[in-house]
Amino acid sequence: MGTSFSWALFVLSLFALSTFGNADTSPGLMMDFYKESCPQAEDIIREQVKLLYKRHKNTAFSWLRNIFHDCAVQSCDASLLLDSTRKTLSEKETDRSFGMRNFRYIEDIKDAVERECPGVVSCSDVLVLSARDGIVALGGPYIPLKTGRRDGRRSRAEVVEHYLPDHNESISSVLDKFAAMGIDTPGVVALLGAHSVGRTHCVKLVHRLYPEVDPALNPDHVPHMLKKCYDPIPDPKAVQYVRNDRGTPMKLDNNYYRNIMDNKGLLQVDHQLAHDPRTRPYVKKMAKSQDYFFEHFGKAIALLSENNPLTGDQGEIRRHCNVANKRNADE
Ligand code: HEM
Ligand SMILES: *[C@@H]1O[C@H](CO)[C@@H](O)[C@H](O)[C@H]1NC(C)=O
What we know:
Its cofactor is Ca(2+); heme b. By secondary structure, this protein is an all-alpha fold.
């Protein structure tokens, strides 16, 4: 019995190797993966991101937030973009995804790529490259990123909380979650600099204002927050929010670090980042030097974008980013 058991294990591991260990047969992620198959791909995405940015500046915020919410949840597999099905609630419907917007515009980018090269470029690469180009539109650094990701077929709401920290999570737990992706402390501090753009809805803020104002908040910032979030229980249908960085709300810059050192960080994690002894030294450095911020931001975005991708013959190239391909449909 012992031998047949180990024999079974041996066969199983061979099977596992042949199924998942495709490192030898597939080149994995690489720079300019579509060089032969769709040489225009990266230019088309860049053009589309620029066009959309001209019409709706906030699309760039969404592309930046997308790379975190997709890649940090198991894999950059565009599972974030899938709609719920009759059986399963999708990632974008969870509380962690609250406030995410502009999903329909990512379809515009994908459609433009499909017109040039049908069925070649994955939604996960569209998501990652649009984040890269969105960062540039917001005044951030240009970050060279690999491509060759393939799309997952499932999106599961239940797993999201395990990977994405909550607005009030401890710094220890935030650092652990990013460390699992190979992102170190300065990397985490740099990534949170994304909160230098965009907005936070009052539902995520009222606990710092009511029943009494959180004494950690800068008293100069409180009247503005109270004016925007005048309702202790915000009407879920009313769009009530505070801008993350009142100074330069449309720019990805290091003003975020000055804000949080000044106790103007909106989320508890933002505030903690400036006060925890592990993260504070980096917050100070990034507040002083935009170059230092950008350097670590670029490295951390690259690591995030390479988190556990599907490559080779894993997954699929989705036709429409919000639904998995129909089985048996011709590829
Ligand atoms: C501890 C980690 C993080 C937590 C707890 C967190 C939480 C949040 C929350 C609660 C909001 C407000 C959503 C709303 O009310 O509409 C937000 C907005 C945003 N987050 Fe994060 N976030 C984290 C890390 C990141 C990272 C790593 C990025 C990107 C690299 C990012 C990018 C953004 C952007 C761009 C917005 C503004 C979105 C918009 O205006 O549409 N966040 N985040
Ligand atoms: C964080 O906030 C949520 C509500 O958004 C609350 O349910 C949870 O108990 C809070 N967690 C901590 C650790 O305070």
